Each structure stands twice: as C-alpha cells, then as structure tokens.
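Q: Please design a sequence for this.
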C-alpha cells in the first residue's frame, strides 16, 4: 500500500472530520458546559454546515474518480451512478440533507437542541461510510463507532471552545475577573471530558479488537501501526487533560476568592496546556482519517481466510462458468462487505458474507469480472489477493462438494482496487 495513493482522500476526510468535530463540540460546549448557557453562534460556527457541504462534494468527486477510473474532469456523468447505486452515495445523500437542514436552523438562529440532534446524526453518516459498516449498517460495530465519534467530538471539539473561554479571561489588557461561574464551567468541562474518556476507551477497545484481531496484525500492518500512533497520541492527550481536575481546578477553587495575579498566571498556564491538547487532538484526527482509507488490519492479516485455488478443475480449462445452474434448495449467500462501489488500496480485498449451505451447498466459488478466481470454505469471511487496479465485479456462488455443480444461489457487488 502506498501512502501517496491515500494522501489526498485522507486529507479531504481529515478536514471534513475536523470540521464535524468542531461543529458538534461547539454545540455541546455551549449547551452543557458554559455558565451561563450561551446559544449565540459566531460567524465561523454558522459557516460550518456550508463548509461541510463543500468538503462532501470534494469527497464525492474523489470517490467517483476512483470508482470510474476516469480523470476528475470527466466524472460528472458518472456521479448519478455513484449516488444511486453505491452504499457511499446513499449515505452521502442522507448527510447532505442533514447538512441542508442544519444550514436552515443556523440561519434562523433557533433550535439549539434540534441542531445537536442533527449533528449527532451527521456523525452517524461518518460511521456508516467507514470500516464499521463492513459488518452491516445496523451492526454493533456501527453503534460503537458512532458513540466513539460522539465522545471524541464532545471532548476534543470542546477543547477549541475551552481555549477560547480561557483566552477571554486573560486576553484583554485588563483581564476580566474570574468568577465562580467560570470555575463552574471548568468543572463541567472536566466532568464531560471524564465521561467522554470512558466512552472512548470502551468503544475504542471494541473497535480495535474488531478491526485488528491480534497482536501480529497490530504490529505488522499499516493499519495497526497507524492505530498504535493514534493510541500513543491519545494517552498523551489523556495525561495532559488529567491536569485540569487534579491540578488546576483545586488551585482555582482556592484562589478565585483572592483574585490575585497568581490566578491569572495559572490561567495562562492552563491556556497553553489546552493549546497543546488541541494540537494532539488534530494529530489524532489525522490518524483517524488515514485509518478510514486503509484496509483493516484483520482483513490484511487473516491469511487463514485467503482465497484458495485447490481442486479448481474447470478453472484449469478456462471454463469460468458451468452451463447449468442447479436449484438452490435452501442455499444462499449475501455479501456484507465490500459495499457497492467500495474503494480498496492495494491488491487485497477482504470480504464478509452470510452463507447458508442448504441441502447440497459445500463452499463458495469466487468470480471477479466473470473469471473464476478460487473458492472460500469459511462460513463468514475471506480475502481476495492479487486483485489488479481498476473497477471490478465480484460474484460469490454456492457450489457442491464436487467443485463442479454450482447452485442458483449467488450475490454480486462492484468495487474498485487502486
């Protein structure tokens, strides 16, 4: 896998994810942290839904370019196919509708709670277009990824506004008096961060197991190594954030009555610490964007599920399809991943599927672009290897034990390898 192949898509996804986290963080901070509650939005915050629509169109163009294999200037005619036929396109349309509603809400400057609900659903569209959806749109993996994003937005996104609040305390020529309301806001953010950290740890642990599966895959795949960097940055962020409840808040609570210059200096130190946390948060988002563009570590490492070429007698004679399909008699196969139009980097394509053998079924034949590539015996997953770049049609078909008799039970999906 080449980093250059995923750099531009990762950059677009990283910018988009940062803006979405910033958006959700601003709404949560003003609703749950700030004392007194402040529903006013800056020009930058009001612009975020419009900006996210633009980044969404950029993502759509890149995805259409990858699926079609055409130059960027020639993909416009292909966009309707991506929107109507691919899983990505359907999620993209739902996201755009939500952003349009949010634009209206922000324009009329009402409906703060409604805006939070819409923003939460926006984060769900991110989960539905990530690796989490490989297990199905209504899977526990999608739920865990969505909760992970919600928690990360409430904490990391809130750091931007915590820094802004601290800057207002100390930024003027004559710093405004730090009151008990300020301390209460700081306590609320600390409590919110604590809840978010617990949720991030629980959901992140599940996601790591689900996408990695083992220590070897963690250490020896690009996905696993990127995940390790993300984990290291998260631990640094967690250590810095722990200074708020265990170091700064006790000092502030004692010093707020005196309004001494020492309190102002301590606030400046906290402001500098929070700016470092913001930098770490942006680095973590960059890692998350890279992970979204890479095949999962479990998919890269599960060599036990690699496609098999044993006993493919009619394949050896270049007979890629038998002339007669026999009745299914209860046999069935449903491809869960890749989704329609999914883009892979590299020559490996991990698959998950539901496979019912019925009366006669034994295993699955794997076809790519009408050519027999091998077979899967595992009831749930497999990996195609040596897939050339380009747009491909994948078909799984149920076969009997003789490797010759194929049943009328199949499923097809289109994907792109680059």
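A: Design:
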């Amino acid at each position: 896998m080449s980093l250059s192949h995923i750099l531009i898509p990762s950059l677009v996804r990283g910018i988009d994810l940062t803006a979405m986290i910033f958006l959700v963080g601003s709404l949560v901070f003003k609703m749950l942290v700030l004392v007194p509650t402040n529903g006013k939005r800056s020009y930058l915050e009001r612009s975020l839904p419009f900006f996210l629509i633009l980044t969404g169109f950029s993502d759509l163009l890149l995805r259409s370019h990858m699926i079609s294999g055409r130059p960027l200037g020639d993909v416009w005619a292909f966009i309707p196919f991506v929107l109507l036929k691919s899983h990505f396109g359907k999620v993209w349309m739902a996201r755009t509708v939500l952003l349009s509603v949010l634009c209206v809400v922000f324009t009329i400057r009402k409906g703060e709670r409604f805006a939070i609900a819409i923003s939460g659903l926006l984060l769900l569209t991110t989960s539905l277009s990530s690796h989490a959806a490989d297990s199905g749109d209504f899977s526990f993996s999608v739920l865990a990824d969505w909760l992970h994003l919600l928690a990360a937005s409430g904490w990391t996104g809130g750091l931007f506004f915590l820094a802004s609040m601290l800057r207002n305390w100390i930024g003027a020529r004559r710093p405004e008096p730090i009151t008990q309301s300020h301390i209460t806001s700081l306590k609320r953010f600390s409590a919110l961060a604590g809840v978010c950290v617990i949720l991030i740890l629980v959901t992140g642990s599940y996601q790591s197991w689900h996408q990695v599966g083992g220590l070897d895959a963690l250490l020896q795949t690009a996905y696993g190594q990127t995940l390790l960097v993300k984990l290291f940055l998260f631990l640094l962020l967690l250590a810095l954030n722990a200074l708020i409840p265990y170091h700064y808040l006790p000092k502030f609570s004692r010093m707020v009555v005196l309004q001494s210059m020492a309190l102002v200096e301590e606030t400046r130190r906290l402001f500098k610490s929070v700016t470092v946390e913001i930098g770490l948060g942006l680095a973590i988002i960059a890692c998350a964007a890279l992970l979204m563009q890479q095949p999962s570590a479990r998919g890269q490492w599960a060599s036990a599920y690699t496609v098999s070429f044993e006993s493919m007698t009619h394949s050896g004679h270049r007979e890629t399809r038998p002339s007669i399909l026999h009745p299914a008699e209860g046999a069935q196969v449903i491809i869960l991943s890749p989704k329609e139009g999914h883009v892979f980097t590299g020559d490996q394509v991990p698959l998950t599927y539901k496979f019912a053998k019925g009366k006669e079924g034994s295993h699955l034949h794997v076809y790519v672009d009408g050519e027999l590539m091998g077979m899967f015996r595992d009831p749930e997953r497999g990996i195609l290897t040596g897939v050339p770049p380009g747009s491909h049609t994948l078909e799984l078909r149920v076969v009997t034990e003789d490797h010759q008799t194929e049943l009328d039970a199949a499923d097809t999906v289109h994907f792109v390898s680059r």
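Q: Thanks. Anything notable?
A: Residues 303-323 have pLDDT under 50 and may be disordered. The longest helix spans residues 261-293.
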